[in-house]
Give the backbone structure.
Amino acid sequence: MNRALMRCCAVLRIFPAVGIIICLGGNAKAQSGAAGPDSKPGIMRNGNTGVSESVREIMDREIKARPTRSKRFKLMREHEVEREGLKNNPESSREAEWPPRGVKARTAVQGAGPFVAQTLGTTVTGATLNDTLAFPPDTMGAVGPTQFIVAVNGRIRSFNKSTGAADGILNADTDVFFNSVRNGSGTSDPRIRYDRITGRWFIIIINVSTPNRVLIAVSSESTITSSSNFTFFYFDDTYLSSGSPCLGDYPTLGVDVNALYIGINQFANGSTFAGMSVYVVRKSSVLGAGPIVVTAFDNITGTTTGAGPYTPQGVDNFDPTATEGYFIGVDNATFGTLMVRRVSTPGGTPTLSGNISITVSTTAYPITVRHKGNSSTNGRLDALDDRLFAAHIRNGRLWTAHNIGVIDTGVASGSANRNGCRWYEIQNLSGTPSLVQSGTLYTSGSSGSTAQRNYWIPSIMVSGQGHAALGCSTAGTNEYINGAFAGRLVNDTLGTLQTPSLITNSTTDYTPSSDPGGTGGRRWGDYSYTCVDPSDDMTMWTIQEFCSATDLYGVSFVKLIAPPPATPSTCSPSSAPAGQTSVTLTITGTQVSGSGFFDPGAGFTGRLAASLNGGVTVNSVVYTSPTSMKIVVSTVGATASGKTITITNPDGQSISSAPGLFTVTGVPVGQSAFDVE
């Protein structure tokens, strides 16, 4: 069934590009393989500067616009491509996880054991249908040092991340926010990132004319206040198919030390699939007034059915020493294959590699989602397709996830009766990439049942501790629509997630008359985002869509609390005399429910800390491992007694030893109290 659907938007004339330098690359040759695929350079063009506005100016414009804003709901049809009939890679295995294990072992391990990856913290509804007036919201938000910012269709809103309360700083319609660069056209498909390397917020969105623009906003600082500035840039989506103007749809975003990586699906005349383009934005060019420097690589699969990354995801990377960038997607030509494209010299004159293929377990097109209160064909929810929803690199390994149709064993199938979330960890990115592990979040049960819970629209993130969290939507014939998450500890069995938990508690039906649905289902998603806190590199946050009230959706963001520190159990040496200016203690901890010591290193506001009672002063702390650390203490002025050692992780969680783990003894023999410095 052809599900290519046209987005409901006006077609406006777009003016020549302003404020950009564009490097137009040739078509990258589609090539399967690993090291050293063909690369293509770009061609540079001149451009102008960005537009800077204060948050106060933006909010003044928002207040003036509110009385005249249309109250009509916008039904935004995603452009989807005919993919149901693709064949699986013949080298793909029929497994729910990798490395493969038997069904009995998989069932026994999933969610078992005393170790817990994350627990639920603050949960906040960041926006609802009444705020956005759009189907779907394109669920998106990110956490910064002090704020969580929700960026969805029709609404950008900032929150105090400590209290969960809207802070009143930023609360604007996306059209109002991007007014200076949207060329009079409506906006759609936002993405947001907080970049820990520069301490800036990056927000992108498209306007919806044909041809259209990619719009970019860059903050002046890490904490947004009324006096903060955003600088706005844009570039025209330049790809043409047979001379026809294209709508560049579903922009993706990755940010690293060198560049912004933006992938686009192209639709000729706004309706007919015409291939994919990727853009590399030189990061240094948008940190000031510009001009923006963009390198474009068009038609990266050669033909609309050629091999290459479908819906190419730009890849985030926290590594400040990174020299390469990446795009990744499911293969445009087959199921069971991921396709990577490397970007060389992304901060200078980028070149794009040919296809680098990675064989994974079989995949399949997802089904529309039944949900309690409405399981009719028209009333089901759209799971989009099998595209990847986000991607990031942690310690040189790439993590990503998507939804696929599966059967009761979690294996992908063209006769799927539920959806599961497949996730991947990929290594050796600069050489021959290969799969470390993959897994599938799904519910098991009779293949003939229609009541199974579905999981779809996933995003996965890994913390500095190596723990992972996957957030997604969930619903079933007997379950209302909620957000959910599942975690895994760094040492959990490869390919497994722990037992999923709901992050919302919907009790209402979702049958909005403004989105009547159809064979493709009611609009949902179109993405979600899970991120790690830049203050401590251990707390996770995820934003997910759910049914917030009868016939209304909401987007909810939630804090996912990491395990606490390990419990201090031994101290070596176990005692030291009073009056010592420097004593190095080695603390060994016992892990309980995933607990462990952690320190993210320099550049973070949260750091590993220790304290002792009874006058002992801690001079310094050195992290060794999740169960070992060293502290240098002074016993000058300390009382002679047993001491309790308290360890505090960067997120503020503390745990104390039993009393007397370390003892300060009396003044050494032959020395008077007056001799002690």
Confidence is low (pLDDT under 50) at residues 1-20, 23-36, 103-113, 672-677. The radius of gyration is 26 Å. Residues 581 and 634 are 4 Å apart (CA to CA). The chain has two domains: 20-63+74-561, 567-675.
